[in-house]
Amino acid sequence: MAVVFSHGLSSPLSSSSFLTASLQSSSLTRPPSNSVSVSAFTTPFRMELDNNERRRKFIEFPYVSSSHKKLMVDLVSMVETRLDSQLLPCTLPPDVQYYQNQNDTSHASLHIRSGHPSSPIDFILGSWIHCQLPTGGALNITSLSTYLKSSTDSPNFFMDIIRSSPTSLVLILDIPPRRDLALYPDYLKKYYEDTNLEAQRQVLEKVPEFKPYFSPSLYIRAFVSPTVITARIESDSVERMEEIIQDHVGVVAKQVLETWLDTCAVVENGDEVDENEREYLQKRDLLVRSKTIEIDLASSLPRLFGPETADRIITTIQKYSSASSS
């Protein structure tokens, strides 16, 4: 979703012409009849049932193509399967897990799970957003990100897939560093050279439809990794785009996530950060998270969902981002 906390790391959300057009839209068709209403909650049992329904609503990725959905489901499953013992259940309120605007033109889902106190995982965040466009199409953004505590300095992970039509795609995929790579060459070697992440970008560059994408935010470009994948892909048919997602984008995304799970999510003996450095990492993480919220969410969410809903979502995400612990 555009309400993606990680989205500010690279998103064209605030500047892309297709999103600007969608924010100016006023009268569009109604959503599918199975959209869930918050007013349906009447009993604790019903609340528990509908929370499960909302979790399914997130994992369904209901507005994207079959290959796009399968990729997102596979990635979320990889993270939750590997890290499940380190994660607490999602406790988001129903009107944060799934929400929409009054005109039924924008719909979104948010899924956050915090890490156990003893886990190096701070929280994981998944989301999708669907916004109908006045031209008759739709903007769909799906995202997955992971955040680590200051007990480790390992990189985080994030991925956004942005679709403004069935034949176009913007991919942003990275494990952004939490150290200055010029000052910590061993960090660069461990997480970016030894893992051969550069090869994943080169794989996508061989796709004929591949074009580089550049974030309009210089701040964003300043702290992504040297192996970040930012691609714009436009195909001549829906079938070709489905093939690209399945055979190329999906393969690369899974490999990058697997690398993060194997190299970053596990803290081995000797990898712990000492107390002085933890304080620095906490401050850095909070500054980066606050800035991404400012860049991405504060300007876009009110226009998409109205100020009341936007405030509810942003406040929730700020709670998780500011609760980072060592």
What is the secondary structure topology, with strand pairs?
Blueprint: H1 17-23, H2 44-60, H3 66-83, H4 94-97, E1 98-100, E2 106-114, E3 121-132, E4 138-148, E5 157-165, E6 168-174, H5 185-193, H6 198-205, E7 210-212, H7 218-223, E8 229-234, H8 238-263, H9 275-305, H10 307-322
Antiparallel strand pairs: 1-2, 2-3, 3-4, 4-5, 5-6, 6-8, 7-8
Helix pairs in contact: 3-8, 6-8, 9-10
Largest sheet composition = 8 strands, antiparallel
Order of helices and strands: HHHHEEEEEEHHEHEHHH
What fraction of the residues are assigned to beta strands by DSSP? 15-25%
Based on CA inertia axes, which overall geometry fits? globular
Annotation field: number of helices:
10
User: Strand pairing plus helix content: what structural class?
Assistant: alpha+beta
Helix content: 40-55%
Radius of gyration: 19 Å
Write up this protein.
The chain has 326 residues and is of the alpha+beta class. It contains ten helices and eight strands. The chain has helices spanning 17-23, 44-60, 66-83, 94-97, 185-193, 198-205, 218-223, 238-263, 275-305, 307-322; strands spanning 98-100, 106-114, 121-132, 138-148, 157-165, 168-174, 210-212, 229-234. The protein has an eight-stranded antiparallel β-sheet, with helices on both faces. Helix 3 (66-83) packs parallel to helix 8 (238-263) and helix 9 (275-305) runs antiparallel to helix 10. The radius of gyration is 19 Å and the shape is globular. Residues 1-49 have low confidence and may be disordered.
